[in-house]
Structures are given as structure tokens and as C-alpha cells.
Amino acid sequence: MQNIKRIILISLCFIIVLPSSFAFEKQGLNARLQAAINEIRKDNNIPGMALSVSLPGEKMTRDFVSGVKVKNNKNNLINTGSLFQIGSDTKSFTAVLTLQLVAEGILKLDEPLDKWFPEYKYWQRITIRQLLNHSSGIFNYTESEKFMKMMAKQPNKQWSAKALADFAYQEQPSKQNKLDRKTHLYFPPGKGFHYDNTGYVLLGMIISKVRNKPFAEVINNRLLGSENYNMLNTYYITGTILAPLRSRMAHGYNTKGNEYIKAGRDVTFDSLSWMNAAGALVSNSRDLVLWARLIFLQRILPKQQLEDMMTLVHVQGDKAGETIAGLCSEGYGLGVGRRLSEYGPFWNHVGGSVGYQAAFAWLPGADIAIAITMTNRNGDATNFIKKIFRAILGDTTLTNPCKNMQGKKHTW
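^ that's the sequence the OP posted. Answer follows.
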């Protein structure tokens, strides 16, 4: 464990001073970033995108937009105030809430679920940590064909967290879902990795139980709004999006989000309740950049909890679910992940809902934070992030301890 903490400390401190000849000139860099987002959007047939970049030494973000808020409406352009569904990027918020409660002594990462959910007998030995890092083995309800068909037929159905958890628990083992017939899990807790929305729904339920308040109220009171961390454009949506937010929404369109929903359908105002604490936030790129810095520069979590958050597990192969002890491996922590790039390791999360994709990232090697939001799921958001890094840094040489190591495609 001491070695793991040392590696995390190195990762946090791995902010390299850029060469003195390198400067973030305003006009040239802005032109490159605008060109990059335009190219990404057009090449991937995305109606609208937004990009925000936070550079070292600059108090204000650099914000860029491309495309339209409503498809085929050239007069309704994306703007910096436009809102997007951010999908699974919500998990990082739920993880921070959980870790804040751990810091306060209210929760423990390694306490089992039997304390909170005696009704779910197959899940009793699973811990809060395993929910956070997707090593629980619990069935992911959004992989159910039945569930996705229900979403398509009833886009405005109001799902409670309990209904989503019950749906996952009631899934019977089969050849298709690969659940164990005895345990009803993908694998024994802590012995594998399977990206899982159900675990984050359960975390939201635990948070609600310990605070004796709806999850929406907890996240609004502790994280969102001007009284806390200046997250002025981020909202937790418990159902459909209502006024006055409706007019700010960039419209999202189904491409790869749900095969049972007509391709290209506008899904902006379908209920978000099915994503719950796993994905029901709307936000913009500016807030997501702020969020990245709040997390990784230790402005929202105590040191110990940030170390816990950045303790990674392997996500594939024989070591899946085991703790990573090196700086140059990709993996998933507690609501965030680490990826590799030509400029060194970076921390990130990618989120997707039926009609949207979003991602935020922090590159410690240059102390650069970026976030992108878009109105369908075409293309790979992690590759887009890497293209933005290249637009900023070009051929700048940074000390990269993971040189010549290539990243792989993962879910987050």
C-alpha cells in the first residue's frame, strides 16, 4: 500500500515545467483549437460541440463552440452557455460525494452492502469501494435488452433508484449475460472488472440513506451552485428537463445510444431518471473543466480521499480487478480513470447518454485541463481529447515516463 501511495504522489506531482521557449500565445492557439473542434465535429457528423481549455497561469478558461443547438437549424448556434447531458461523467460527482462522507467518518470504503441493502442477498459481501471501481460483479442494468426496449417504448417513464436496483437484482443468469448461476454476479467481488451503472445507482441510494435526503438534494447542496464550488451550469435532473433549462439545451440525437430507438431521433427531453446517480447530470464544458481542477488539484477532497480516488485497478486480462502498482498502466479508480498519451499519462472520465457524449481530462505533465461536450455519440471522446492535447502542445517535448506505451480503448 505504501508503494501505491508513493506512485499516486508522483502522479500528483508530475507537473513538468514547460520549456521556456513555449508560450500559450493567444491568437495562434485559439485558431488551432477552433480548427480542431470544427474538424472533429465535421469528420464525425456531430451536430454541435463545445470545448473548454484551462491552461496553467490563466484564470479564465478558453471556450470554443462549433455547430448548432438544433439539427438543421443554422440560425440556432451552439454557444458557451449551452447545456449538454454528460452521462457517466456524473459518476465522478457521485464518487466525490461518497468520498466526502468517508472523510467525515460516515461511510467506510470497505464496509459491505449488507448494512444498507439486506434485501439483496446476492450482493451482501460487496463493498462500497468495489461499487466505485466497478469490481463488484453486479449486473449492469443498461446491458439488458429488456430494459433498453422499455426505454425506447416509454421514453418518459419515471424510474426510481430502487426500481433500477430491483431490475438489476432480478436479472437471471444466462449464457447471454454471463452471470454466475450460483452468485448471480459476473465474478466474485474484487476479482474482475465490469463497467456497471447499477453500482452507482446503489451509491446514490446509500448517500440518500445516510443523509436522510433525496440524492438530488444532497448533490445540489454539497457540490452544485454558487455557494459551494461555483458550479453554476451543472444540474441533476430527476426526470425530464423543464424550463428554464429547456431553452439552454443543445439537442441530442440517438446514434449509438440505444439500438431500439430510431436512429437520429431527438432525445433531448426524454426522461433522465433511468441514469440516476450513474448519469443524470447536465452541464457544460466550462463547468467540467472547473470540475477536473477541483478534483485533481485537491480542492474538493482531502489528501487521503484523493489518493483513494486515484488508486486504480486493472480493467482487463488476468489481473482485472487487482490494484495497479505502476505509473504507466491504464486503469480505473473511484469514479475516474487514467489513460496514456504521447504527452504522458492523463486522468479523465468519458460520459455518454442516448444522444450525447462528454469528457473531461487533466494532463499533469503540462497542467492542462480540457472538457468537451457533443450532441451525439459518434466517434471516440478519448481520441478527441488527445487531438486537443496535440493542438495545444504540438511537438513540445515533455518528460514522459510512459513514452512509447500506447493507450487502449476503454468504456470510461
